[in-house]
Write a structure and sequence with these properties.
This protein has 3 domains: about 80 residues, Orthogonal Bundle (Arc Repressor Mutant, subunit A); about 70 residues, Orthogonal Bundle (Arc Repressor Mutant, subunit A); about 120 residues, Arc Repressor Mutant, subunit A, CATH 1.10.10.10. It is about 40% helix and about 15% strand. The chain has 14 helices and 11 strands. A 3-stranded antiparallel β-sheet has the order 3-5-4. A hairpin with a 2-residue loop joins strand 4 and strand 5. Helix 5 crosses helix 7, helix 9 packs across helix 13 and helix 12 packs across helix 13. The protein is elongated. The relative contact order is 0.07.
Length: about 375
């Protein structure tokens, strides 16, 4: 190699480094390398000579596409590691593992590509492992596969399952705990607390069991058990004023634009430090949110060019009917039978057709229907 070629080689590599900028994985085609202006225009022969030299020194890593061949630059410190390898099997095996990146390379795939015996491959990998150039890891998709990765890299989330896996097993308890945290954050920031007196429904009195008296009950016995409708209303008022309503969450008004976004939820989780040792990114939080949306526990809210989230099934009609003890703000399940006067009638046990108390002449029904 003459001095001119050596200088052009160094200049082309430096030009590629500058062109990569913040994208170290950028690929360069032949036209891209020619466009850097290092080699004279249309001097393809010189360019190919320099590319060959850079590839031989492991400073260029070739990448094959259907449309042709491209090259990715390799840091000088990484290229120097190839000089530590003594045999061709070690060099080729390390190159395959190096090219696989964070996904790792399957041992059987390495063997197939090198076309060597098992003993030779195991010996080469053992030497690479001893020199701390590669290491073995387990892929969650198939734990029986022997996977190899560069010693300085961490396996990708696809290979290890990301934060949802612990020792190659799906950590369901951790996922459930984080879902509860996400739901709590959405409820906290997607609704507001309202307090005040609770207008509770009256509590039905304890009624005596129906007794069997020969000849029927006397009018005095009936009057002693029967109360007027006004008396019942007064008793219910005393019950309702004696209870104070707990804090209840209510929906925010239409047009509200402060619902938490994915990034804000992720930031809140980071502040709570509930995922210690597990780096949670916005994409991981989005996976939890997608599950909650699918389960119909939270819903998306469009806020201009942003997307927020709020808890679903918050009572939007009558705040007094909001079910206080429901974690997910389920609307109370009510119908006409739950409010009919018979449910709290003090002489219900005496009511029968043709008797002293019957539905056709009930004064409680008159007040309920008025």
């Amino acid at each position: 190699m003459d001095d001119e070629t050596s200088i052009l080689k160094d200049q082309l590599y430096a030009a590629c480094e500058d062109a990569c900028g913040e994208d170290p994985d950028r690929l360069f085609s032949q036209d891209d390398l020619m466009g850097l202006g290092v080699v004279a225009p249309k001097d393809v022969k010189k360019l190919l000579q320099i590319i060959q030299l850079l590839t031989k020194e492991r400073l260029f890593s070739p990448v094959h596409f259907h449309s042709g061949l491209a090259w990715r630059i390799r840091p000088e410190a990484e290229a120097a590691k190839y000089k530590l390898l003594a045999t061709e099997d070690q060099i080729l095996a390390y190159e395959i593992i190096d090219s696989a990146g964070p996904e790792g390379a399957w041992q059987q795939d390495i063997k197939k590509r090198l076309n060597i015996q098992d003993n030779a491959l195991r010996k080469a990998l053992k030497e690479l492992e001893t020199k701390r150039l590669v290491r073995q890891f387990t892929n969650v998709e198939n734990a029986s596969k022997k996977m190899w990765i560069k010693f300085s890299l961490q396996p990708s989330a696809r290979a290890t399952g990301g934060p949802w896996y612990t020792d190659q097993y799906l950590d369901e308890a951790f996922i459930d705990a984080l879902q509860s945290v996400v739901l709590g954050i959405v409820k906290e920031k997607g609704s507001y607390k309202s307090t005040g007196e609770r207008h509770a429904r009256g509590v039905s009195p304890v009624l005596p069991k129906k007794g069997v008296i020969k000849g029927g009950l006397s009018e005095a016995a009936i009057k002693s058990k029967k109360r007027s409708a006004d008396a019942i209303s007064k008793d219910d008022a005393l019950v309702s004023t004696s209870k104070i309503r707990k804090a209840v969450r209510l929906p925010l008004p239409a047009g509200y634009t402060g619902y938490p976004t994915v990034q804000e939820i992720a930031a809140s989780i980071d502040q709570l430090q509930v995922a210690k040792g597990q780096p949670l990114e916005a994409s991981h939080v989005q996976e939890l949110i997608d599950i909650l949306v699918w389960e119909n526990r939270i819903e998306e809210v469009k806020m201009g060019d942003r997307v927020g989230y709020r808890a679903v099934r918050i009572s939007k009609h009558n705040p007094e009917d909001t079910q206080l003890d429901s974690e997910d703000f389920w609307d109370p399940q009510t119908n006409g039978l739950t409010t009919v006067p018979c449910g709290k009638c003090p002489v219900f046990e005496l009511c029968e057709e043709g008797g002293p108390v019957w539905a056709g002449g009930c004064e409680y029904f008159n007040q309920w229907l008025s």
